[in-house]
Amino acid sequence: MRSFKYESLPSRVVFGAGTFATVGDEVSRLGAQRVMVFAGRPERSLADRLKWQLGPRMVDLFDDVLPHVPLAIAASARARARDLQADLLLTVGGGSTTGLGKAVALESGAPILAIPTTYAGSEMTPIWGLTEAHRKTTGRDPRVLPRVVVYDPELTLTLPPGLSGASGMNAMAHCVEAAYAADCPPMIRIMAEEGIRALAVALPAVVDEPHDLAARSEAFYGAYLAGCAFAVAGSGLHHKICHVLGGAYNLPHAETHAIVLPHAVAYNAPAMAEAMRRIGDALGADEPALALYQLAGRLGIPSGLREIGMAEADLDAATELVLKAIPTNPRPLERGPIRRLLDDAEFGRRPVTHLTPAM
Ligand code: NAD
């Protein structure tokens, strides 16, 4: 018999090619007069286009954006927002830029209008993250959930194929972990499976032809669904591994997700037969872990963690960090099989379900 708890999250989503031109109207709907814009230096031209739309309502452009929201940068952005009495935080960029806006909202309570330009999905979640001395702290707070999100796939046309594929697999990971989360409400599971379906088809098309706007739109749609699913269902072993590796060994976020995902799915497979069937259906494949591995290869993503900076000598210590993370996960965490999972990910081997510690 069905039984679930579901709290829907309040945000307005405006999705479609050309919607960037409506940002000024969205700002008016919110009644904001003192808009602080966050955009990394590479996204400067988008900030300039916003100035044109917002006029004197745009009181600042904060462009000191770095991955994983270093606490010192968050502190300087918070001070600036206080001085300016910003009444709207407008972020345009990837997950790092959205994350910086969230760090400010966490303190000031000002609403966020987010304009994502990657497939990370942070714009749909009430999850914040801050990094200090290589340790990333995350938390949930309704104040950081963007009030309005404008998805314009035209803004993603410039995202290079390598980043598009990796970022898209980050979205895929949100969907896959939601699809197997034990307490995922049914409507979110439907969104997660639809996200898997959309991303599996769109990402190869995006990487083959980065200027294919229809493919970009479908990939963005998948990323939107991924963010919605991640926001409600939370995460398990896969996200914990990526969190640990990204924080302790400074690995690039999206690529780490893309490489680890097939191995995390293989680890969990024996404990989630029904979810594997649903994920397989959405991927159009009999073996989900292998299909995800082949998809990452098709997208040109490095196959092993060692190619993105993970030293083999650190795998034992990384195993201990993962075991300490205690995620909710379909299969209990077992030291030997987790160590073997990391070894497979390090060397980019085909994903295998390890039940024993021997290597
Ligand atoms: P990112 O924001 O660091 O961007 C990566 C690079 O892509 C940057 O150099 C950026 O300038 C460039 N870029 C962005 N959009 C572009 C475009 N359209 N064209 C060309 N270049 C573009 O990377 P990301 O993967 O988007 O975000 C990763 C961060 O987001 C991590 O810190 C992660 O923890 C966080 N995240 C948070 C959540 C959450 O719910 N809180 C969810 C997912 C990711």
Write down how many β-strands occur, each being a DSSP E stretch of 2 or more residues: 8
Query: Helix and strand string, N-terminal first?
Result: EHEHEHEHEEEEHHHHHHHHH
Structural class by SSE content: alpha/beta
Query: Which architecture of the largest domain would the CATH scheme give at its second level?
Result: Up-down Bundle
Low-confidence stretches: none
Q: Assign the CATH class of the largest domain.
A: Mainly Alpha
The helix content, as a percent range, equals: 40-55%
Radius of gyration: 20 Å
Query: CATH superfamily membership of the largest domain, which one?
Result: Dehydroquinate synthase-like - alpha domain
Record the strand order, biggest sheet: 1-8-5-4-2-3
User: What is the typical, i.e. mean, pLDDT?
Assistant: 95
Beta-strand portion reads 5-15%
Q: Which word captures the global form? A: globular
- CATH fold-level assignment of the largest domain: Dehydroquinate synthase-like, alpha domain
Domain module count: 2
Overview of this protein structure:
The protein is of the alpha/beta class and 359 residues long. It has 2 domains: 12-156, Rossmann fold (3-Layer(aba) Sandwich), CATH 3.40.50; 161-347, Dehydroquinate synthase-like, alpha domain (Up-down Bundle). Helices cover 52% and strands 11% of the residues. The protein is built from 13 helices and 8 strands. A 6-stranded parallel beta sheet has the order 1-8-5-4-2-3, with helices on both faces. A two-stranded antiparallel sheet has the order 6-7. Strand 2 (35-38), helix 2 (44-54) and strand 3 form a beta-alpha-beta unit. Helix 5 packs antiparallel against helix 6 (186-208), helix 6 (186-208) runs parallel beside helix 10 (273-283) and helix 8 runs antiparallel to helix 9 (253-268). It is globular, with a radius of gyration of 20 Å. Nicotinamide-adenine-dinucleotide binds at residues 40, 42-43, 67-68, 93-97, 99, 117-118, 120-122, 125, 127, 129, 155-156, 158-159, 163, 167, 170, 253-254.
